[in-house]
Known about the structure:
Elements: H1 8-18, H2 22-41, H3 47-56, H4 70-78, H5 83-91, H6 105-126, H7 137-145, H8 155-165, H9 169-181
Helix pairs in contact: 1-3, 2-3, 2-6, 2-9, 4-5, 6-7, 6-8, 6-9
The structure holds fe (ii) ion.
Amino acid sequence: MEQNIPSREQAYDLLAKYNKSSSLIMHALTVEAVMLHFAEILGEPDKEKWGIIGLVHDVDYEMYPEQHCIKAREILKDHSWPEEYIHAVESHGWGMCSNVEPDSRMEKILFTTDELTGLIAATAMLRPSKSVLDLELKSVKKKWKQKSFAAGVNRDVIEQGAKMLDMELDFIIQETIKGMQKVAERIGLKGDL
Ligand SMILES: [Fe+2]
Protein backbone atom coordinates (compact mmCIF):
# COMPACT_ATOMS: atom_id res chain seq x y z
CA MET A 1 0.00 0.00 0.00
CA GLU A 2 1.32 3.41 -0.87
CA GLN A 3 2.45 5.46 2.08
CA ASN A 4 1.79 9.13 2.25
CA ILE A 5 3.04 11.71 4.68
CA PRO A 6 0.04 12.78 6.77
CA SER A 7 -0.75 16.44 7.13
CA ARG A 8 -1.61 17.99 10.47
CA GLU A 9 -5.22 18.24 9.31
CA GLN A 10 -5.37 14.54 8.43
CA ALA A 11 -3.83 13.69 11.78
CA TYR A 12 -6.40 15.78 13.63
CA ASP A 13 -9.28 14.25 11.64
CA LEU A 14 -8.05 10.77 12.52
CA LEU A 15 -7.74 11.71 16.18
CA ALA A 16 -11.28 13.13 16.20
CA LYS A 17 -12.65 10.06 14.41
CA TYR A 18 -11.44 7.74 17.15
CA ASN A 19 -11.69 10.05 20.18
CA LYS A 20 -14.78 11.80 21.45
CA SER A 21 -13.64 12.55 24.98
CA SER A 22 -12.62 16.18 25.34
CA SER A 23 -10.02 15.32 27.96
CA LEU A 24 -8.32 12.92 25.54
CA ILE A 25 -8.41 15.52 22.77
CA MET A 26 -6.90 18.06 25.15
CA HIS A 27 -4.20 15.59 26.14
CA ALA A 28 -3.42 15.06 22.44
CA LEU A 29 -3.18 18.83 21.87
CA THR A 30 -0.97 19.12 24.94
CA VAL A 31 1.49 16.51 23.75
CA GLU A 32 1.42 18.00 20.25
CA ALA A 33 2.40 21.41 21.64
CA VAL A 34 5.16 19.95 23.79
CA MET A 35 6.57 17.98 20.85
CA LEU A 36 6.51 21.11 18.67
CA HIS A 37 8.25 23.08 21.41
CA PHE A 38 11.03 20.54 21.81
CA ALA A 39 11.48 20.26 18.04
CA GLU A 40 11.92 24.01 17.98
CA ILE A 41 14.43 24.32 20.82
CA LEU A 42 16.39 21.31 19.58
CA GLY A 43 16.55 22.77 16.08
CA GLU A 44 14.80 19.81 14.47
CA PRO A 45 14.10 20.38 10.78
CA ASP A 46 10.78 18.49 10.58
CA LYS A 47 8.77 20.11 13.35
CA GLU A 48 5.48 19.21 11.72
CA LYS A 49 6.27 15.51 12.02
CA TRP A 50 7.00 15.89 15.72
CA GLY A 51 3.70 17.68 16.27
CA ILE A 52 1.68 15.15 14.29
CA ILE A 53 3.11 12.22 16.21
CA GLY A 54 2.33 13.97 19.48
CA LEU A 55 -1.20 14.57 18.29
CA VAL A 56 -2.00 10.97 17.35
CA HIS A 57 0.10 9.05 19.87
CA ASP A 58 -2.97 7.90 21.86
CA VAL A 59 -5.31 7.54 18.86
CA ASP A 60 -6.48 4.07 19.93
CA TYR A 61 -6.80 4.72 23.65
CA GLU A 62 -10.46 5.66 23.93
CA MET A 63 -11.83 2.78 21.86
CA TYR A 64 -9.26 0.11 22.68
CA PRO A 65 -7.79 0.80 26.12
CA GLU A 66 -6.92 -2.87 26.53
CA GLN A 67 -5.09 -2.98 23.21
CA HIS A 68 -3.44 0.42 23.49
CA CYS A 69 -0.43 0.75 21.13
CA ILE A 70 -1.43 -2.44 19.32
CA LYS A 71 -4.58 -1.03 17.73
CA ALA A 72 -2.74 2.19 16.94
CA ARG A 73 -0.53 0.27 14.51
CA GLU A 74 -3.60 -1.16 12.77
CA ILE A 75 -5.39 2.17 12.59
CA LEU A 76 -2.40 4.05 11.22
CA LYS A 77 -1.55 1.25 8.79
CA ASP A 78 -5.13 1.22 7.51
CA HIS A 79 -4.69 4.91 6.77
CA SER A 80 -1.37 4.25 4.99
CA TRP A 81 0.76 6.09 7.52
CA PRO A 82 4.52 5.68 7.09
CA GLU A 83 6.27 3.08 9.22
CA GLU A 84 8.41 5.77 10.86
CA TYR A 85 5.30 7.42 12.32
CA ILE A 86 3.80 4.11 13.42
CA HIS A 87 7.04 3.07 15.14
CA ALA A 88 7.16 6.38 16.99
CA VAL A 89 3.57 6.01 18.22
CA GLU A 90 4.19 2.44 19.39
CA SER A 91 7.40 3.34 21.17
CA HIS A 92 5.71 5.83 23.51
CA GLY A 93 4.29 2.87 25.40
CA TRP A 94 7.58 1.00 25.73
CA GLY A 95 7.52 -1.29 28.74
CA MET A 96 3.83 -0.46 29.34
CA CYS A 97 1.82 -1.44 26.28
CA SER A 98 4.50 -2.14 23.72
CA ASN A 99 7.95 -3.64 23.46
CA VAL A 100 9.06 -1.15 20.83
CA GLU A 101 11.91 0.82 22.34
CA PRO A 102 12.20 4.55 21.67
CA ASP A 103 15.06 4.98 19.27
CA SER A 104 15.17 8.45 17.72
CA ARG A 105 15.36 11.64 19.75
CA MET A 106 11.78 12.37 18.72
CA GLU A 107 10.63 9.05 20.16
CA LYS A 108 12.52 9.58 23.39
CA ILE A 109 11.02 13.04 23.88
CA LEU A 110 7.53 11.63 23.35
CA PHE A 111 8.19 8.76 25.76
CA THR A 112 9.47 11.16 28.43
CA THR A 113 6.98 14.00 28.19
CA ASP A 114 3.72 12.08 27.72
CA GLU A 115 3.47 11.12 31.40
CA LEU A 116 5.03 14.38 32.54
CA THR A 117 2.27 16.48 30.99
CA GLY A 118 -0.16 14.73 33.33
CA LEU A 119 1.80 15.73 36.41
CA ILE A 120 2.17 19.31 35.18
CA ALA A 121 -1.54 19.61 34.36
CA ALA A 122 -2.52 18.23 37.77
CA THR A 123 -0.12 20.61 39.53
CA ALA A 124 -1.42 23.59 37.56
CA MET A 125 -5.02 22.78 38.50
CA LEU A 126 -4.09 23.06 42.19
CA ARG A 127 -2.90 26.64 41.85
CA PRO A 128 -5.18 29.46 42.94
CA SER A 129 -5.09 30.66 39.32
CA LYS A 130 -5.77 27.10 38.02
CA SER A 131 -3.31 28.03 35.31
CA VAL A 132 -0.16 26.66 33.75
CA LEU A 133 0.86 30.21 32.83
CA ASP A 134 2.25 31.07 36.27
CA LEU A 135 3.40 27.56 37.10
CA GLU A 136 7.01 27.24 38.22
CA LEU A 137 9.40 24.33 38.02
CA LYS A 138 9.71 24.14 41.80
CA SER A 139 5.97 23.51 42.25
CA VAL A 140 6.11 20.57 39.87
CA LYS A 141 9.22 19.23 41.62
CA LYS A 142 7.43 19.39 44.93
CA LYS A 143 4.54 17.37 43.56
CA TRP A 144 6.98 15.00 41.88
CA LYS A 145 8.21 13.94 45.30
CA GLN A 146 4.68 13.44 46.64
CA LYS A 147 4.06 10.00 45.20
CA SER A 148 0.43 9.93 46.27
CA PHE A 149 -0.25 13.02 44.16
CA ALA A 150 -1.26 12.18 40.59
CA ALA A 151 -0.26 8.64 41.50
CA GLY A 152 -1.03 7.43 37.98
CA VAL A 153 1.91 9.41 36.65
CA ASN A 154 4.82 7.02 36.46
CA ARG A 155 7.83 9.04 37.63
CA ASP A 156 10.18 6.15 36.81
CA VAL A 157 9.22 6.30 33.13
CA ILE A 158 10.00 10.02 33.03
CA GLU A 159 13.35 9.49 34.74
CA GLN A 160 14.16 6.64 32.40
CA GLY A 161 13.34 8.88 29.43
CA ALA A 162 15.55 11.69 30.73
CA LYS A 163 18.40 9.22 31.05
CA MET A 164 17.89 7.96 27.50
CA LEU A 165 17.97 11.55 26.29
CA ASP A 166 20.93 12.41 28.47
CA MET A 167 19.09 15.54 29.55
CA GLU A 168 18.58 17.03 32.99
CA LEU A 169 15.16 16.28 34.41
CA ASP A 170 14.76 19.93 35.47
CA PHE A 171 15.37 21.06 31.90
CA ILE A 172 12.79 18.63 30.56
CA ILE A 173 10.18 19.68 33.12
CA GLN A 174 10.83 23.38 32.50
CA GLU A 175 10.59 23.06 28.73
CA THR A 176 7.48 20.87 28.97
CA ILE A 177 5.84 23.60 31.04
CA LYS A 178 6.81 26.15 28.37
CA GLY A 179 5.36 24.00 25.61
CA MET A 180 2.09 23.70 27.52
CA GLN A 181 2.01 27.45 28.20
CA LYS A 182 1.92 28.09 24.46
CA VAL A 183 -1.47 26.39 24.20
CA ALA A 184 -2.75 27.03 27.72
CA GLU A 185 -6.18 28.14 26.59
CA ARG A 186 -6.77 25.27 24.18
CA ILE A 187 -5.81 22.67 26.77
CA GLY A 188 -7.99 24.18 29.48
CA LEU A 189 -5.07 25.43 31.58
CA LYS A 190 -5.28 29.17 31.14
CA GLY A 191 -7.24 29.39 34.38
CA ASP A 192 -7.95 32.93 35.57
CA LEU A 193 -4.90 34.45 33.93
FE1 LIG B 1 -0.49 10.08 26.05
